[in-house]
Design goal:
The protein is α+β, with helices and mostly antiparallel strands and 140 residues long. It is 39% helix and 20% strand. It binds adenosine-3',5'-cyclic-monophosphate. Keywords: ATP-binding, Cytoplasm, Kinase, Magnesium, Metal-binding, Nucleotide metabolism, Nucleotide-binding, Phosphoprotein, Transferase.
């Protein structure tokens, strides 16, 4: 197994409910290190660009509105197999299908307000990290 980095976003439904610390504990307890973190308010243009791959999906407009409805916490998580590990810790996209003990099972409100985003593959992880972080901000 290789040490990887993945992009994580704690979404507005979770920052609104003051859940950043509880979610970070799930990452750390699950063996991942938070090697970069910043709380920001995304602009509409940034959210549209970040989720550009979903532009043609019926939920795109609502997703962008939701992602700019409050602050988000952008993070880089590092660890063995971090991309897959983070997806296990998050649970299924739809909280109705998420396993016990996962972030989405415990905290998500809906498939849209699902508390966290995580990169889905090495290529997207590299792109998503570079979208939000400069190299100098990543201290492993
Ligand atoms: P995320 O991992 O951030 O990637 C795209 C997001 O779109 C997803 O999590 C969900 O929050 C949101 N979304 C809203 N509706 C749907 C849907 N029907 N299928 C998949 N993702 C959806």
């Amino acid at each position: 197994m290789a040490v990887e980095r993945t992009l994580s976003i704690i979404k507005p439904d979770a920052t609104r409910r003051n859940l950043t610390g509880k979610i970070n504990a799930k990452f750390e307890d699950g063996g991942l290190r938070i090697v970069a973190q910043k709380r920001v308010q995304l602009s509409q243009a940034q959210a549209e660009q970040f989720y550009g791959v979903h532009r043609e999906r019926p939920f795109f407009k609502d997703l962008v509105s939701f992602m700019i409805s409050g602050p988000v916490v952008l993070q880089v998580l590092e660890g063995e197999n971090a991309i897959a590990r983070n997806r296990e810790i998050m649970g299924a996209t739809n909280p109705a299908n998420a396993a016990e003990g996962t972030i989405r099972k415990e905290f998500a409100e809906s498939i849209e307000a699902n508390s966290v985003h995580g990169s889905d593959a090495p290529e997207t992880a590299a792109q998503e990290i570079a979208f939000f972080f400069a190299g100098i901000e990543l201290v492993g």
